[in-house]
Structure formats: structure tokens, C-alpha cells
């Protein structure tokens, strides 16, 4: 069942090149254009949409945070990402021109389902990104874009997350094409870059041993920070939840620029800081933030998109990901964060696949 792997989680981490390929390829039609005809999603769904709301929980919500950046960049319309358990008890600003995207691996998360039903009450158009075929969320949505991740057994979500990102990127490309905010040529270019993610993930998985080594330094720690800006902040949120849920180490995700507005006081001698610096536009700002934590003797693990010239004195470990276009770096960075959480949990001899107090599918409110 585990295919020779010691845990489902690591098996599922390694399945990602395949699950991303299976999610993307069936949706590529002539000349690398994304097409949702077979999914029953006509282009008319996107016409008239002037606002997008993404509602989800946990890791699925973090996928939404990444999706927001891409959707806003390409569509130039506002996108908000809502925690489903909060959103469902509010009076949302939704009308017939709002596209409400719910994201769920299981398709059974009670709060996400309630958020979806609320969106319907307010006349929003609902589209869900779901992994489990025929699940409640899939059945209740106007449109469904399935992730083809296959069954995810480990409680910590890994391959569903990158499959969700794949769907969000495909959606952004198609939507932008329909809205004419990108040209067909640009779309083809984006799609080629998206497909380059698969070999890049295969390369990233080769850091497995190095990450296992790094995690020996984390296993005795009690607190840890993930920092990043923009897409890297969205990724930090995901890295933090993954580590917390299976290693039981307290961690926080921080927008790097926010550190000096309070949290820097918690950065003391030896505290691990996972610094994600994959975005060129804010790279020098990130380096300044890393210097700030380094000055407090933080133990820094730096992740960059490709080899970057960085002063070696500011980090303890550096993982240079295979270079991708910046907006696609979340795919490879996510693999590093998943492996960090996995190996830390293994070093701590915890129940990786079934962490305490947590269930795979949260069908209670
Ligand atoms: O099945 P869903 O995607 O709706 O589940 C949402 C969250 O419960 C889930 O992503 C949870 O946060 C994961 N265990 C995180 O790894």
C-alpha cells in the first residue's frame, strides 16, 4: 500500500510529479491552451465576473493564497481569500458577478461546504476545486474542476496542495485569455512554464537527503519561524501548518516585513528561521530581513529560486531550487517545506501519517 515507502506522507510527496502531470495534461488543448470543455466549464462562466472570492480551510486555504496572487496579476480584478469557518458566519459581499471558488481535497469539509451554500444564497457563481469525485462540495457546486491527485491518505496534505495550485494556475490562464488580459501567445508561454514545474519538482526531490540532515537541527527546537514576502509569505503559511501538525513544534509564518513590528523580539539565539526568498522583485528586501534575524543569532535555512549570490554568513543552510519563473516557485518551494515537516516528524519519532487530535476530513463544525 505504501509502495515501499515508510509512510504515506513521503509516498504522496514523491507522487507529485505524476499528480501534477495528471491534473494539467488532460486540460491542455491545441497549442498549449488550457481548456475546460471536458470539465463542463464553459467560458461564459468567466464573462461578467468582476470579483473572485476563494473560501477554504487549512492547506486548501493556503493554496488559495497563492492562487490569489496569480489571479490578480493576470486578471486585474480583486480576489479575496476567506477562511471558510469565518466567512460562513458573516454577511459576504457577493452578487451574481462574483465567482466563488471553494477548494477542498476531501470535498466534505463542513465549513467549506457551508461557505459554498452561503455563496449560492447570495447568487454567486460557484466553482469548486475538489479531489474526491462525487463528494458533497463537488455535488453542491455549479462547476467542478477536479484535482487528479488520487487518494491522499496521510493527514498532512501534500500532493492535493500542488494539484490545487495547478488547477488555480490553469484557471487563471484560461480566465485571463477569455477576459483578454493576456494574449494567446502569452498564454502558451505561461502554459509551457507551468509544465516545466514537473521536471523541476523531480529535481527538487533530490534535496531529500540534505533536508533530512538539516532537520536533525530542528528536532529539539520548540519554536520556529517561516518568513517570506508575497508568494513566499503564502508559502510560509503552508510550511508552518505542515510542520505544526506533524512535528508538534510551535511555528509561525510571518510576512518578513512585519517582523520588526513586533515579532523580532521573539527571535533569539539559535531559533530556526526558514527564509523563503524565491521572488526577485523583493529579493533584496528579504536579504535585509534575513540579516535582521541573523543579527539575533537565528539558525537560518535559506531557500532561493535558482543559485543566487548570497553572503554565506547570513545562513546555515541554503537550498537553491531549480530555477523556474518566479510565479511558479511555490511548486518547488512547497516540496522543500513538506520534506522539512516530514523529516522533523520522523526524527522526533512521531506518528507522521496520523498526528494526534487531527482527522483527515473535518466534517464537524
Ligand atoms: O479536505 P480539505 O481540503 O477541505 O481539508 C482542509 C483542511 O482540513 C486540510 O487541508 C488540513 O489543513 C490538512 N491536514 C493540512 O495538512
From TrEMBL:
Keywords per UniProt: Aminotransferase, Cytoplasm, Glutamine amidotransferase, Repeat, Transferase
Catalysis: reaction(s): D-fructose 6-phosphate + L-glutamine = D-glucosamine 6-phosphate + L-glutamate
Gene Ontology BP, a term: protein N-linked glycosylation
Any coiled-coil regions, as ranges: none
Location(s) in or outside the cell: Cytoplasm
Assigned EC number: 2.6.1.16
GO CC, any one term: cytosol
Main location class: cytoplasm
Active site location: 360
Gene Ontology molecular function terms on file: carbohydrate derivative binding; glutamine-fructose-6-phosphate transaminase (isomerizing) activity
Function recorded in the entry: Catalyzes the first step in hexosamine metabolism, converting fructose-6P into glucosamine-6P using glutamine as a nitrogen source.
Complex and partners: Homodimer.
Name of the protein this chain belongs to: Glutamine--fructose-6-phosphate aminotransferase [isomerizing]
Organism, scientific name: Anaerocolumna cellulosilytica
Taxonomic classification: Bacteria, Bacillati, Bacillota, Clostridia, Lachnospirales
Amino acid at each position: 500500500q505504501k509502495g515501499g515507502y515508510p509512510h504515506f506522507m513521503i509516498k504522496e510527496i514523491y507522487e507529485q510529479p505524476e499528480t501534477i502531470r495528471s491534473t494539467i495534461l488532460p486540460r491542455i488543448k491545441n497549442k498549449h491552451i488550457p481548456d475546460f470543455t471536458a470539465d463542463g466549464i464553459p467560458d461564459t462562466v468567466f464573462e461578467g465576473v468582476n470579483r473572485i472570492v476563494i473560501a477554504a480551510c487549512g492547506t486548501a486555504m493556503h493554496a488559495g493564497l497563492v492562487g490569489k496572487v496569480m489571479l490578480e496579476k493576470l486578471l486585474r480584478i480583486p480576489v479575496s481569500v476567506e477562511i471558510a469557518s469565518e466567512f460562513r458566519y458573516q454577511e459576504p459581499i457577493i452578487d451574481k458577478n462574483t465567482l466563488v471558488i471553494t477548494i477542498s481535497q476531501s470535498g466534505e469539509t463542513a465549513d467549506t461546504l457551508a461557505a459554498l451554500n452561503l455563496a449560492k444564497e447570495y447568487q454567486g457563481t460557484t466553482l469548486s476545486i475538489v479531489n474526491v469525485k462525487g463528494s458533497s462540495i463537488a455535488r453542491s457546486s455549479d462547476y467542478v474542476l477536479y484535482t487528479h491527485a488520487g487518494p491522499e491518505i496521510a493527514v498532512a496534505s501534500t500532493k492535493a496542495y500542488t494539484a490545487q495550485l495547478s488547477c488555480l494556475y490553469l484557471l487563471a490562464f484560461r480566465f485571463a485569455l477569455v477576459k483578454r488580459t493576456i494574449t494567446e501567445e502569452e498564454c502558451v508561454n505561461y502554459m509551457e512554464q507551468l509544465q516545466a514545474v514537473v521536471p523541476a519538482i523531480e529535481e527538487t526531490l533530490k534535496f531529500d537527503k540534505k533536508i533530512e540532515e538539516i532537520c536533525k537541527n530542528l528536532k529539539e527546537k520548540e519554536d520556529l519561524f517561516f518568513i517570506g514576502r508575497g508568494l513566499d509569505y503564502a508559502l510560509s503559511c503552508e510550511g508552518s501548518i505542515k510542520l505544526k501538525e506533524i512535528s508538534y513544534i510551535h511555528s509561525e509564518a510571518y510576512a518578513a516585513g512585519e517582523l520588526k513590528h513586533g515579532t523580532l523580539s521573539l527571535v533569539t539565539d539559535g531559533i530556526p528561521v526558514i527564509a523563503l526568498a524565491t521572488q526577485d522583485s523583493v529579493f533584496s528586501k528579504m536579504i535585509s530581513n534575513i540579516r535582521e534575524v541573523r543579527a539575533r543569532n537565528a539558525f537560518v535555512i535559506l531557500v532561493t529560486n535558482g543559485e543566487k549570490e548570497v553572503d554565506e554568513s547570513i545562513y546555515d543552510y541554503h537550498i537553491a531550487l531549480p530555477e523556474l519563473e518566479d510565479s511558479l516557485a511555490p511548486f518547488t518551494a512547497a516540496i522543500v517545506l513538506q520534506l522539512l515537516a516530514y523529516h522533523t516528524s520522523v526524527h522526533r519519532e512521531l506518528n507522521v501519517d496520523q498526528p494526534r487530535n487531527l482527522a483527515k476530513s473535518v466534517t464537524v463544525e
